[in-house]
Design brief:
The chain is mainly alpha-helical. It has one domain. 69% of the residues lie in helices and 0% in strands. It has four helices and no strands. It has helices spanning 2-13, 20-32, 41-73, 79-98. Helix 2 (20-32) packs across helix 3 (41-73). The longest helix is centred in the middle third of the chain and has 33 residues, at 41-73. The radius of gyration is 32 Å and the shape is rod-shaped.
């Protein structure tokens, strides 16, 4: 019976976002309704808190994986790659600025027809 309620509350209440206080409130309500025995309170609260942490961890991993996939598919450079490219551009700009510029250009001789 407890397993049925745990599954229902886990799915219906989004345990991943609940605080320990909120979980305790829900368990208290279940006890008042007679759906959970008082002796099971501590075990149920601890189990629901552990499940919530597990779900948050899974959600975080899923989001990270999804973001990484999108970044890869869009070929967006990672921060390290961007910083490396920025340094390379700055070095090239310095080299280009250090080269003497030729101010006189030879004019092409007019074509004879």
């Amino acid at each position: 019976m407890i397993d049925l309620f745990k599954k229902t509350y886990l799915a219906g209440l989004g345990l991943a976002t609940m605080t320990g206080d909120k979980i305790e409130e829900i368990v208290e309500e279940l006890i008042k309704k007679g759906e959970v025995a008082e002796k099971d309170r501590k075990e149920l609260v601890e189990e629901l808190i552990a499940k919530g942490k597990e779900q948050r961890d899974q959600l975080s991993k899923s989001i990270t994986d999804s973001v990484n996939k999108v970044v890869y598919e869009l070929k967006i450079p990672r921060r390290e790659q961007y910083e490396d490219l920025l340094k390379r551009v700055e070095e090239l700009e310095k080299k280009a600025a250090a080269k003497p510029k030729s101010t006189s250009r030879k004019k092409a001789a007019p074509k004879k027809s």
